[in-house]
Amino acid sequence: MLDDASVKIASFKALFDNMIFLSTLLSLCGAQVLKGIIHILNGYRKRKRELVEVLVWRTGGMPSSHAAVVSSLCTSIAFVEGISSNLFVFSFWFALVVLRDAMGVRLSTGLLAKGLNNLGRQVSEKTGLNFHPVKEIQGHTPMEVVIGGLLGIFIATGLHLF
User: Fold this and answer.
1) pLDDT value of residue 133
2) CB burial readout 9-24, b (16+ within 10 A) else e
3) What is the pLDDT of residue 51?
4) Residue 112 lies in a domain
5) Is residue 128 part of a domain?
6) 35 occurs within a structural domain
7) What total number of domains does the chain contain?
8) Which 3 state secondary structure label does DSSP give 63?
9) Is 0.85 topped by the overall pTM?
10) What is the pLDDT of residues 114-161, one digit of tens each?
11) Pick from 102, 91, 95: which is nearest to 144 by CA?
12) Which end of the chain is more exposed for a tag (fewer CB within 10 A), N or C?
């Protein structure tokens, strides 16, 4: 009889044997590592904490990890389930929504927040009132989304063909 620990280990192993899961995980990690490398190459060597934040948490920037994950997910499902499967159709439309959101809504919201923060700082300087800035959510430019999408497609294709 199997105990709970062996069932959990077997489930965890099965997850990492799943090519769809692996390709999306590698695409996410690959995009974040590239984002960190680009961050360093652009001269942002101020603090190690900032680099860790870029690698682990910060949104926005080149390449889009959102785009990498959903394009890898969709490509992997195409290889595993086929393009005529309901799962592929779902993942395709899901990917389009995420990609559109990454470069549309999120980018617009971030620009709006930046403008609001600039206005708030100016008013605060003139009036002496305290201003607490809102979070500036970083969206993606179309190029960042395209590069992220291509990265995800290449990683998924590489895993499935090699």
Assistant:
1) 85
2) eeeeeeeeeeebebbb
3) 67
4) no
5) no
6) yes
7) 1
8) coil
9) no
10) 888 888 888 888 888 888 888 776 677 889 999 999 999 999 999 999
11) 102
12) N
| Residue 110 covered by a domain | no
Instruction: Concatenate the DSSP letters of all residues of 4-42 into one string.
Output: HHHHHHHHHHHHHH-HHHHHHHHHHHHHHHHHHHHHHHT
Whole-number pLDDT of residue 160: 92
Give the Cβ contact number of residue 54 at 10 Å: 21
CA distances from 84 to 12, 21, 107, 143 (A): 29, 20, 33, 29
Q: What is the pLDDT of residue 2?
A: 59
Residue numbers in the chain where pLDDT is lower than 50: none
- Which residues span the domain enclosing 68? 4-104+139-161
Q: How many alpha carbons lie under 13 Å from residue 43 in its C-beta half-sphere? A: 0
